[in-house]
Write a structure and sequence with these properties.
The complex is a heterodimer of chains A (724) and B (501).
Chain A (H helix, E strand, L loop, with lengths): L2 H23 L3 H28 L1 H6 L1 E10 L2 E9 L1 H24 L19 E4 L5 E4 L6 H20 L3 H19 L6 H32 L4 H4 L2 H9 L9 H16 L8 H4 L5 H10 L1 H11 L1 H4 L11 H22 L4 H21 L3 H36 L14 H4 L1 H15 L6 H15 L3 H26 L6 H4 L6 H16 L19 H7 L15 H21 L9 H6 L1 H7 L4 H76 L6 H23 L1
Antiparallel strand pairs in A: 1-2, 3-4
Helix pairs in contact in A: 1-2, 1-5, 2-4, 2-5, 4-5, 4-12, 4-17, 4-23, 5-6, 6-7, 7-10, 10-13, 10-15, 12-13, 12-17, 13-16, 13-17, 15-16, 15-21, 16-17, 16-20, 16-21, 17-19, 17-20, 17-23, 17-24, 19-21, 19-23, 20-21, 20-25, 21-25
Chain B lengths: L6 H7 L1 H9 L6 H25 L7 E11 L2 E9 L4 H17 L8 H20 L3 H10 L1 H11 L4 H30 L4 H6 L8 H15 L8 H8 L2 H26 L1 H28 L3 H20 L4 H32 L10 H4 L1 H15 L5 H15 L7 H25 L16 H19 L2 H25 L1
Antiparallel strand pairs in B: 1-2
The chains are: A mainly alpha (724), B mainly alpha (501).
């Protein structure tokens, strides 16, 4: 089989679906979603072929597989675009293709395919539900189909294309193209219900915030290209180039070129993977339909950021000897990652919206990965990327299912309550058993429930990486974050599923259709089993029973230049056990039996601080006050009204006024008195003379004859006098 | 040649045929006039494609036509026209945008159609002449000639404030050209020729005063581009001009300035160019940030687009004065990109203005629902102007960025670094515009019943959209046209830089 060709084809299928849906089938819902899902399935199948091929083929593991074509000429050289397969691509393809396929299938049910159209539904707004008359002649409220159903799948195709493009690319330019198209898709999909003011604001925020990071990344690309003359991975990650980058100085802040470029690229990661201080867009991004959140939080956007950091690790860590002396980019990553992990975990604790909790949890988990990379735990970061993508997709789809069930209840009872507020739920485990079971699996994986779940293994590996590398601050911050993580996810599970129903709607919630629950089941299978590929050999009792395949497989990415930590302490393991079980226990204990809809036990225990948490540390307000408002003010008042209107136009008008003034003066001082008056005088004198001479014009021939005679005599006299 | 007439001459003066026909049409035959103008401009476009077919990028003097004209103080002035890699895309852009602009006036211009179309075709003659003339006097004549039709297009068919804008436009540009005329005369008398190739070959004759000469030319061109702080005529002219006028103004007339730098300033005064490059680059960067900031403050859509031109042309200038192959070819491509994207934006603004007679963003909102096709097309154009990868703007911007970053003449990556921040601004103001006009609920009653684009309007937009994607996905053919000429230019400038150091 031609594996290069297969790799090229992976992103193409969804792109094709995008175009066909928008140009041809946009009026046919069934055809459109079949096309989209079909294309996702093709990409999935091709990815699996590549996966199996790469895993079983030693050559690919060591050499990679690559193919490129020339795209953009720059001077004498060409910017090339192409694809490649190496271990990192392989494992990324694995989770991306699975999650994308599952999310696509899930969307069919989520958007109420097969339901009637709502009478009041308008494009650009979420469907309100339809009223139908059932067989017994009773009026019933049922969910209605999304008015822009086909468009949704079209955008999804483009989204999937961008992510696949980014993953299979063999150079930073194509990666960047996929990266930006993904930014666009997030804009289009977060703002899918564009008539909703909150959605359009969220879309704009997402695009702009990530763009800030992207622009720095673009500068990084330009720098890299200028210095190395290429953006191909095989060139820029070759040992000579890395060595050169690490040892030559850039003109900025005394950083080496590797340090500067690493930081610039990392800014892109901060934007895309929603790290502090550019994390603000991700929680708002849940304004989009829930499958979009799942796409953004698991399969695409944020994973792409971490993927880039992994891909770029050779440059980020250029000059690092494997010890405690980190390179500047790594140090920055360690600090920002662990800070973000803790910071957003605390925010998640105080959120009431079922999706918002998960959103902050994503930010926090991404912080884990970035921090892991910062301390050099490359394999652990990649491992957590995979497991997180799976269980976070599961959790988001689960939350979508919960909301869907709640909306069903609301339609039935006609209550006016927020279907996403966890305090309006409770006791859903009876109503939605499949959602419940799968959500618990996902939640426990997030919490790192020991041994069974995938999240435990990857998180444990990050913690032990930080501990064994000697970065105890990072270790403790992450450990506390892990504890909070377990706590808030158990809080969520308890509030949503356990106890008694707190509203009528929750009593009438309904399990969702199988298009939604089957993907949940598939994903929960992986949320457990995927962890077993990376059980460390030194692990007590079961270590070594299953070979640590991931370490061997991904380890080849690092060229074996980093020292392997030899001694293994049991402190990280014990810590992971304690924080995970402790957090889960405490969360369950506190929230098991909440009766009212508005009291949170943390509210009295944390008092004022709870409000700070619930308001996300007021970061949004702070940005509004410090950046956005001043920027608007400066651009409008200073740059436009002062400089452009007053200074530049004023200068011009000044010249104009001076000219007019000068002209005026010329007119009154010279033109009028001299030229004009002079002219007038000549005219009036002429007239006066004329009037005086008029008497001579009597009209009588005798007078003229006399005059003629007189003048002849006079003339003759003068003539005579002059001549003689 | 085949017709016994040089295709360049034929192309340049063909619009006059249309003018001749128009003169004999009765004032009430409006549609006949429109079709005549459209037909003429389409034939001109066809001839330009023929020129493209005959064009060989590796030759500097394609289809050269050389006819002695008259003598000035003993120095011969010729009708000297030719096309090379620097001008071919500009010529095509002109002939491509003119029919599109004419098509956009179908419903918008109802009064004095005859005069409008005549001026429009005359304008095309002038623009083509500017891009093809290789004799400095001939160039100057064409250069000034473009002012007159544009002056009337703004002054007669423009908006409320049209007289002010037209006069400002005319005086500003005219004032800039005066110095250029002096410099041209000085060059001609000094070197005994007005022919650009000859002057380039004999540039040692006036090397002593080249900094002043550079400045004289640069001011004329910088006003046209416009380079900050000489941009203040632009927003008024763009906003007051009728849609078709704005399209041509942004699409082609501004390019004449940047083209002037490429054709005259760099090859005639290479040392001075190298010396002035950092200053020009700084002005370009100020333009990028300044234009972006002012655009962000606008409430009127057309003004926003107008100021965005200042920012975009800043990128072009930055690329040109990076003085390396990447920068120059990126700059030229970005000129084309800007012509397409901004031209398209002006067309879109015109379409909505025809429906609602307002351009205030606050009057809109939620249009996507009422006009889905219009919304979709606008989104693509906005993204292209923003420089989204996969669309045309990115290719130009990225190449310019590479050029500026690696430029030896500029000597510092800070130029590229700061200029890139303009990309954030572009995203901010364009998204703001899109959000305010297209997203959200429909707040105004009169917007609910707006009609979506009709067939003519879609036909106007489709060629632009095709190019937006083509340039974004596969820009290679365009670069192939540009690159040989750019490399020659770079060699010339670099040898000068060597002399300098």
């Amino acid at each position: 089989m031609n594996y290069e060709l297969i790799t090229w084809l992976i992103p193409l299928a969804p792109l094709l679906a995008f175009f066909i849906i928008f140009l041809v089938t946009y009026k046919n819902n069934r055809l459109s979603h079949s096309l989209a899902i079909g294309s996702a399935a093709i990409s999935w199948l091709l990815s699996m072929i590549i996966f199996v091929f790469a895993v079983t083929n030693q050559e690919v593991i060591e050499e990679g597989l690559t193919s490129s074509i020339s795209w953009l000429p720059t001077g004498e050289t060409w910017l090339k675009i192409g694809v490649q397969v190496d271990p990192l691509t392989t494992i990324t393809l694995f989770f991306v293709s699975w999650t994308i396929l599952m999310i696509f299938i899930y969307s069919v049910g989520y958007h109420n395919f097969g339901q009637p159209e709502g009478d009041h539904d308008r494009p650009g707004l979420p469907p309100h539900g339809a009223e139908i008359i059932d067989q017994e002649g009773k009026h019933q409220h049922v969910p209605s189909i999304e008015p822009m159903y086909a468009r949704f799948f079209g955008f999804f195709g483009l989204f999937a294309f961008a992510m696949y493009l980014l993953v299979v690319s063999n150079n930073l330019l194509t990666l960047y193209i996929g990266w930006e198209i993904m930014g666009l898709c997030s804009y289009l999909l977060i703002g899918f219900w564009y008539a909703k003011p909150s959605a359009k604001a969220a879309a704009q925020k997402a695009f702009l915030t990530t763009r800030i990071g992207d622009v720095f990344m673009l500068i990084g690309l330009a720098a890299l290209y200028t210095i190395t003359g290429s953006l191909q991975y095989e060139v820029i990650f070759s040992e000579d180039v890395i060595h050169y980058l690490a040892t030559s100085m850039s003109p900025v802040l005394g950083l080496s070129w590797a340090g500067l470029i690493g930081l610039l690229i990392f800014m892109g990661v901060v934007g895309k993977s929603s790290q502090f201080p550019l994390h603000v867009w991700l929680p708002d991004a849940m304004e989009g339909p829930t499958p979009v959140s799942a796409m953004i939080h698991a399969a695409t956007m944020v994973s792409a950021g971490v993927y880039l950091a992994l891909r770029f690790f050779p440059v980020l860590s250029a000059g690092w000897d494997g010890g405690a002396a980190l390179t500047t980019p790594m140090l920055v990553m360690a600090v920002i990652g662990s800070f973000t992990a803790l910071f957003s975990a605390t925010i998640a604790v105080a959120q009431r919206d079922v999706k918002r909790v998960l959103a902050y949890s994503t930010i926090s988990q991404l912080g884990f990965m970035i921090a892991a990379l910062g301390v050099g735990a490359y394999v652990a970061a990649a491992f957590h990327l995979v497991t997180h993508a799976i269980f976070k997709a599961l959790l988001f789809l689960g939350s979508g299912s919960i909301i869907h069930g709640m909306e069903h209840g609301i339609l039935h009872t006609q209550e006016h309550i927020d279907p996403q507020d966890m305090y309006n739920m409770g006791g859903l485990y009876k109503k939605m058993p499949k959602t419940f079971a799968t959500f618990v699996i996902g939640g426990f994986a997030l919490a790192g429930f020991p041994f069974i779940t995938a999240g435990f293994w990857s998180k444990d590996e990050i913690l032990s990486g930080a501990f064994n590398g000697g970065f105890s601050i990072v270790f403790w911050v992450l450990a506390i974050s892990a504890f909070i993580t377990a706590f808030y996810i158990m809080r969520q599970i308890s509030l949503v599923f356990l106890g008694e129903a707190r509203t009528e709607a929750a009593k009438h919630a309904h399990e969702t259709p199988s298009t939604m629950t089957v993907p949940l089941v598939v994903l929960s299978f992986f949320a457990i089993t995927i962890g077993w590929v990376g059980i460390p050999e030194y692990f007590p009792v079961i270590g070594g029973l299953v070979p640590n395949w991931l370490e061997t497989f991904l380890g080849t990415m690092l060229h074996g230049e980093h020292a392997v930590v030899e001694h293994h302490s049991s402190i990280p393991l014990i810590t992971s056990l304690v924080v995970s079980l402790g957090g889960l226990f405490l969360g369950g204990l506190l929230y098991r039996r909440i009766k009212e809809t508005d009291k949170d036990p943390l509210e009295w225990s944390l008092s004022g601080f709870y409000k700070v948490l619930a308001n996300k540390y007021y970061i949004d307000e702070f940005y509004q006050l410090v950046f956005i408002k001043p920027a608007q003010w400066v651009s409008e008042k200073i740059v436009y009204q002062f400089f452009d209107q007053k200074i530049f136009d004023g200068f011009l008008h000044g010249i104009g006024s001076i000219s007019i003034w000068l002209g005026d003066k010329f007119r009154y001082w010279f033109d009028l008195p001299v030229i004009n008056r002079g002219g007038d005088n000549i005219a009036s004198w002429t007239r006066k003379i004329g009037t005086n001479l008029k008497v001579t014009q009597s009209g009588r021939i005798q007078d003229y004859m006399i005059l003629a005679l007189a003048f002849s005599l006079l003339g003759g006299f003068i003539f005579y006098w002059i001549l003689f | 040649m085949e017709f016994g007439i040089n295709p360049l001459v034929l192309m340049t003066f063909f619009p006059l045929v249309g003018v001749l026909v128009l003169v004999f049409l009765a004032p009430q035959q409006k549609n006949a006039m429109r079709w005549t103008a459209l037909g003429t401009s389409l034939v001109t476009f066809a001839i330009s494609l023929w020129v493209l077919f005959l064009f060989d990028p590796n030759k500097a003097d394609n289809l050269l036509v050389q006819i002695p004209w008259f003598r000035l103080a003993g120095v011969p002035i010729q009708i000297l026209m030719g096309v090379d890699g620097l001008s071919i895309l500009m010529v095509l852009l002109t002939t491509f945008l003119t029919p599109i602009a004419i098509l956009s006036t179908w419903k918008a211009v109802e009064e004095q159609v005859k005069g409008f179309m005549i001026f429009f075709l005359l304008l095309e003659v002038g623009m083509l002449g500017v891009f093809l003339a290789l004799d400095l006097v001939l160039f100057y004549i064409f250069w000034e000639f473009t002012l007159i039709p544009m002056y009337f297009l703004i002054g007669v068919w423009g908006g409320k404030n049209r007289i002010y804008a037209a006069v400002k436009f005319f005086l500003f540009t005219m004032a800039g050209s005066v110095l250029m005329l002096l410099a041209i005369l000085y060059l001609g008398l000094q070197a005994g020729s007005f022919s650009q190739p000859e002057l380039v070959a004999n540039r040692s004759l006036f090397a002593g005063s080249q900094l002043l000469l550079f400045l004289a030319f640069a001011i004329a061109f910088a006003i046209k581009v416009p380079v900050f702080p000489l941009h203040t005529w632009l927003p008024d002219a763009h906003v007051e001009a009728p849609t078709a006028g704005s399209v041509i103004l942004a699409g082609v007339l501004l390019k004449m300035g940047a083209y002037g730098f490429l054709r005259f300033n760099l090859p005639l005064f290479p040392q001075a160019s190298v010396q002035a490059a950092p200053v020009m680059a700084v002005l370009a960067i100020i333009g990028i940030l300044y234009g972006g900031a002012v655009a962000f403050a606008q409430k009127d859509i057309k003004k926003l687009v107008a100021y965005s031109s200042v920012a975009h042309l800043g990128f072009v200038m930055l690329g040109i004065f990076a003085l390396n192959p990447e920068g120059l070819s990126g700059g030229i491509l970005q000129m084309v990109n800007h012509g397409i994207s901004t031209g398209a934006l002006f067309l879109l603004v015109g379409m909505i203005y025809e429906r609602r007679h307002t351009r205030e963003m606050s009057e809109y909102g939620g249009l996507w629902k009422a006009m889905p096709i219009f919304g979709g097309i606008s989104l693509v154009v906005v993204l292209s102007s923003m420089g989204l990868p996969g669309l045309n703007g990115f290719v130009g911007e990225f190449t310019i960025l590479l050029g500026a970053f690696g430029s030896k003449v500029l000597g510092s990556p800070w130029f590229a670094g700061i200029a890139t921040l303009g990309v954030i601004l572009a995203a901010a103001y364009l998204l703001k515009m899109f959000e305010k006009t297209f997203l959200g609920p429909i707040t105004k009653e009169e917007n609910k019943s707006l009609k979506d684009l009709n067939l003519r309007e879609i036909i106007t937009m489709v060629p632009l959209l095709v190019l937006i994607f083509w340039l974004g996905i596969y820009p290679q053919p365009f670069f192939n046209l540009i690159n040989p000429a750019v490399e020659q230019l770079v060699q010339l400038v670099q040898s000068a830089a060597l002399v300098l150091h």
